[in-house]
Amino acid sequence: MTGTPVLAKGLGGRTVGEQSTELSNVLVRLGRVEKENSRLKRMGLGALVLAGALLLMGQARSGRTVEAERFVLKDASGRVRASLGLIEGNTMLTLYGPQGSKMKGVAAELGVGQNGPFLWLIDGVPRASLGLDAVGPSFTFHDGDGNTQMVLGAGPKGAALAFPASGGKYSASLFGGDAPGLRLEDAAGYSLHLGETDLLTARTGVTQKTSAASVVLFDKDGKTLWSAP
Prior knowledge:
The protein is an alpha+beta fold. It has three domains: 15-62; 68-139, no CATH class; 172-229, no CATH class. 21% of the residues lie in helices and 43% in strands. The chain is built from one helix and 16 strands. It has one helix at residues 16-62, and strands at 70-74, 80-87, 90-96, 106-113, 116-123, 125-132, 137-142, 148-155, 158-164, 170-175, 181-185, 191-195, 198-201, 206-209, 215-218, 224-228. The chain has a 14-stranded antiparallel sheet, with no helix packed on it. A hairpin with a 5-residue loop joins strand 9 (158-164) and strand 10. The longest helix is centred in the first third of the chain and has 47 residues, at 16-62. It is elongated.
């Protein structure tokens, strides 16, 4: 039997040919989307690689050595608050107070010189210092005029605490270690030694060490005035 050909119907009443054409278009669009996704992935990977390279370069730069003779740190007002540099052959780190000056305010200096490391505490003038040299460590206190008022030090034979007079001599000294004792001296040079003392006997010319229980008085020339026992 002959007649008008009948086209097969698919879902939705569309012919098989229409479905094939639509399916082809979908596949083409999917191919384009897949290519776009692949390109975006490559771009994202490239961005990550670039960011990592920049990070590594930044870290490499931060590890470089910076050379200079002096570094200065200033606050928002332009006042110097810290400095690091070489001063008269000493390597020094100076920290300033709000005034930005050692002469007008508080400051601290930490340094290393030819004699060893040191620390200064300053309030217009040096008020306290801590140092270390070949003899040993020492701690010094100063008055408002910068004059030494007390010295605490340690050496190979023991420690000592001294109170200087205005003339620079030690008016009172306390010794420990191998030769413990107390020394008192006035402005004229007369002194009292309590404890172990090197005592020269004028008659024999022999120097002997007294005991820790001895008391010796000296004149301004260092001659023995009286001793006991």
